[in-house]
Amino acid sequence: MECTIDWGGPDGMLFVARTGSGHITAMDGAPDGGGHNQAPRPMEMMLTGAGGCAAYDVVLILKRGRHKVSGCRVKLTAERAETDPKVFTKIHFAFLVTGASLPTAAVERAVQLSHEKYCSATAMLGKTAEITHAVSIVDTQAPAP
């Protein structure tokens, strides 16, 4: 795996990343740090990477279990250390999984397997941060109230 990061120039703190798979993304700093708020911060990108990794795992595990999953959203909230390096100290994953008659145990197991076995991003961030999660399920087969 590889990527290349290029600085956008002396007028700010915009950086452009090119991934080994051929994708491009931008990162910027806050205005008080010389940035112009044109893109996510690098630490926001780390957090989204962890969320994407975990959501990917949950959907894949449920699909492999032949469950009728139709949606997965994960909202992450994080706290950082007050002094440099300002690592993540707490990260909470709030999953909202949608599907037809999804067994609660299967969804909770998928989330647990992601955090304990499969998600590399969570495993790395878990070295400095307390990782917690919550699961909510929306049943698309439930009768309307």
What does this structure look like?
The protein is an alpha+beta fold and 145 residues long. It folds into 2 domains: 3-33, no CATH class; 42-139, GMP Synthetase, Chain A, domain 3, CATH 3.30.300. The chain is 30% helix and 34% strand. The longest helix is centred in the middle third of the chain and has 23 residues, at 42-64. The protein is elongated and about 55 Å long.
- Could you name the ranges where pLDDT drops below 50 across 5 or more consecutive residues? none
Structural class: alpha+beta
What's the helix-strand series? EEEHEEHHE
Number of domains: 2
From the spread of the alpha carbons, the general shape counts as: elongated
> What name is given to the CATH topology of the largest domain?
GMP Synthetase, Chain A, domain 3
The first-to-last residue Cα distance is 49 Å
Number of helices: 3
CATH homologous superfamily designation of the largest domain: K homology (KH) domain
Strands, total number: 6
Largest sheet: 3 strands, antiparallel
Strand content: 25-35%
Provide the helix percentage.
25-40%
Mean pLDDT: 95
Rg over alpha carbons: 18 Å
User: Which CATH architecture of the largest domain?
Assistant: 2-Layer Sandwich
Strand order within the widest beta sheet? 1-2-3
Q: CATH first level of the largest domain: which class? A: Alpha Beta
